[in-house]
Amino acid sequence: MRERTYKFRFYPTTKQENLLRRTIGCVRLVYNKALRVRTEGWYETQERIGYTQTSSLLTEWKKLEELDFLNEVSCVPLQQCLRHLQTAFTNFWAKRAKYPNFKKKRNGGSAEFTKSAFKWKDGKLFLAKCKEPLNIVWSRFLPQDCSPSTVTIKLDPSGRWFVSILVKDSSIKPLLKTGKNIGIDVGITSLITTSNGDKLANPKQFKRLYKKLRKKQKALSRKTKGSNNRYKACLKVAKVYAQIKDARADFLHKLTTKLVRENDLIAIEDLAIRNMVKNRKLARLISDASWGEFNRQLEYKCEWYGKELIKVDRYFPSSKRCGNCGYIIDKLPLNVREWECPQCGTNHDRDINASRNILAAGQAVSVCGASVRPEQSKSRKATAKKQKPRS
Fold first, then answer.
1. 260 and 301 in contact (C-beta within 8 Å)?
2. Can you give the pTM of this predicted structure?
3. Residue 48: helix, strand or coil by DSSP?
4. Adjacent-strand bridge partners of 265
5. What is the DSSP letter of 147?
6. Which of 83, 142, 325, 386 is most exposed, with minimal Cβ within 10 Å?
């Protein structure tokens, strides 16, 4: 059985919304205070303050008269936010993430409830200090005979409420084998190009709603800071961003699910997306294409359904290698979409050729664990120069 999160929208009553907003506000306050304490502790005394110390500080904060309101909400989300902060620092010290940021009210917020802070009865969810169940829109059914282990309440910047329910899902089982393999080359004009010769156009969700977003942001810039009209304008901007996010996520989920169901082996490139978005000319287009989210969804869905995902090394010359004879050309600018092999004379579509080379490399890795990293890659050349003794 695998753990799976089901996300639903819900509509709280006035009392529930007041309580949940206060809970999220308290979570944000405790998180920021703990982050400030840990930051000052490191810069002043070079001390790494951990979860245990911040948990003791939370007890002391609750005793203060000016922070007495912390006792009016459930203590579980407050403790959970300290655990999340500890995880953020663990990832930072391991160089897997950047330094934790302070939470901001305009970004909404979330609160996590463990089993001791909610009750699941007859398919209804009761949160701590709430007498009425949440009015959840059940867009799909939860697995039978399941009991939630964690519930997360989230308020997004556009003012929508969501609940994420974590359960152990027994319905996730390996899919039947299809005997098909596929290589995928991601791009901007065509979101993906497959080794079958198919190209899927990039929907460009951000570009589609860019004029609407620009109009809302222009209206926002004219509002007085701190005014109620500015708050309303902020919500309108957030709603446009929510439309972009929802459309992008829906498209990627449908695409990745189809690819996983139809193929036994999927080969993709392990691209350095964080470095690629540093190019200011391509950053918006790459971000709109959501290559990272596409790869993430493929990874966990292949793991769920018993399919194989191969990530080909980013230095593998998939576009510059001839798929017919293996010849590698020296240069291939991005504006060149078709090229002819000088050795065998085969005419190649850049993207289709790359996807077929990625599939061949992925199959080699799958069968024999072979390395597809070229020996004459730039990184190896740079390493060789560094190691070369000076005369």
1. yes
2. 0.86
3. coil
4. 181, 308
5. -
6. 386
Name the phi and psi angles at 322, rounded to 5: -70, 125
Q: Does residue 385 lie in a domain region?
A: no
Q: Beta 161-169 vs 150-155: how paired, if at all?
A: antiparallel
Domain carrying residue 71:
2-169
Whole-number Å distance between alpha carbons of 177 and 184: 19
Mean predicted confidence (pLDDT) in 295-301:
95
The residues assigned a catalytic role are: 185, 269, 351
pLDDT (average), residues 340-345? 88
What are the backbone dihedrals phi and psi of residue 268, each rounded to the nearest 5 degrees, phi first?
-135, 170
Q: What six digits make up the tokens of 202?
A: 């990039």
Instruction: Read off φ and ψ for residue 164, nearest 5 degrees.
Output: -110, 125
Question: What's the token pair of residue 382?
Answer: 């740079």
The secondary structure element, H or E, covering residue 54 is helix 51-63
- Co-location of 61 and 195 in the same domain: no
Domain boundary among 145, 169, 193: 169
Residues 75 and 219 in one domain: no
User: pLDDT per residue over 110-127, tens digit each?
Assistant: 999 999 999 999 889 999
Burial of 307 (C-beta count, 10 Å sphere; 0-12/13-18/19+): buried
